[in-house]
Design a protein that fits this description.
Blueprint: H1 3-32, H2 39-52, H3 56-63, H4 68-76, H5 85-98, H6 105-123, H7 126-129, H8 131-152, H9 157-184, H10 196-208, H11 212-219, H12 225-234, H13 242-256, H14 262-276, H15 280-286, H16 288-310
Helix pairs in contact: 1-2, 1-4, 1-5, 1-8, 1-9, 1-10, 5-6, 6-8, 9-12, 9-13, 9-16, 13-14, 14-16
């Protein structure tokens, strides 16, 4: 496969996944902002939302004072924000258009229709009237894109690059969500009952990664920080966990390997093995923030190596 074609497929998937991840985080923030809390706590929640995406300085530059309406506008429709939902869906569509001949008609029409429909929904005032419904629509379109891709495309290199982009992006997002919450906590005490506010927060965090029902099924107990971390890091049967993402990255890298990708595969395999055989007690003892920070750095490096080995090289 031509490197430019692989590059477009990889980034089509990453932008689609990024739009969904942003919708998930915003949806949970809107819900938790309705809980009884001080104005300071509410503002801290929106700042954390910007911090997860490393967009605090960009927001401050364009908007100044922080409020819910401006954060939603910035994260959903602002064309100056390359990570806004609208920007991501536009880029996903543009990357799909560039490799239209590689995609099935169904995949292309899904990407194209999503971009056309998001403009209509934003113009209709749907975000202001019912933000939850808008975010559910974004998530649905991302699910639809993945389903149509797996259901209609030949399982060749094109699909493997799409899957690589999806799971690298998902791993990055899950790690960021966890890091923001745990880094703000002063300590984690095993077996300690959480305060009511923290219970709602952890429940909201689980819902942001479609993990609340899975948590109840796996643990059948009160929500605790340790178990949330274990579920979202070390459970290979949890679809959005770090281990599940690395399972997919390693498997798809093996399918597209070439003469220069051995070191990249080795890096991915080592990172995968560390999570496959880790225990949450050891991670917490070593420092969860440090572990997640290192993971984000290595995922970033892995993305760069994949670009170097397979895709269009990054500009110097």
């Amino acid at each position: 496969m031509l490197s430019r074609t692989a590059d477009h497929l990889f980034w089509m998937a990453r932008y689609t996944e990024r739009a969904e991840n942003t919708a998930r985080m915003l949806d949970v923030n809107v819900q938790t902002s309705m809980l009884p809390q001080s104005a300071e706590n509410a503002e801290q929640g929106w700042r954390a939302m910007l911090g997860i995406s490393e967009l605090q300085s960009a927001y401050d530059h364009h908007y100044g004072l922080l409020n819910k309406k401006d954060v939603l506008d910035f994260m959903v429709r602002d064309p100056m924000n390359p990570s806004s939902i609208a920007s991501c869906l536009k880029e996903a569509r543009e990357n799909a258009r560039a490799v239209r001949g590689t995609l099935t008609t169904e995949v292309w029409e899904t990407q194209n229709a999503t971009w056309l429909e998001v403009q209509e929904k934003l113009a209709s005032g749907m975000l202001e009237q019912d933000p939850g419904q808008f975010f559910e629509w974004v998530k649905f379109r991302s699910h639809l894109s993945r389903g149509v891709t797996l259901g209609t495309m030949l399982k060749d290199e094109a699909v493997h690059f799409i899957r690589l982009g999806t799971f690298l992006e998902r791993a990055d997002n899950t790690a960021r969500i966890l890091d923001v919450k745990f880094h703000s906590a002063k300590e984690i005490e095993s077996g300690k009952q959480l305060m009511q506010r923290d219970f709602y927060y952890w429940g909201a965090l689980l819902r942001s990664v479609s993990g609340f029902e899975i948590y109840r099924k796996v643990y059948r107990d009160v929500i605790t920080p340790e178990r949330v971390a274990e579920l979202l890091m070390l459970r290979g049967d949890m679809p959005r966990s770090l281990l599940a993402c690395m399972d997919e990255v390693v498997a798809n890298l093996a399918e597209v390997r070439n003469d220069v990708s051995a070191d990249t595969e080795r890096l991915a395999g080592k990172l995968h093995a560390e999570f496959k055989f880790a225990r949450i007690e050891d991670i917490l003892e070593a420092g969860l923030h440090d572990t997640l920070t290192e993971f984000l750095e290595r995922i970033f490096e892995l993305g760069n190596r994949i670009s170097r080995d397979f895709l269009v090289p990054l500009a110097a």
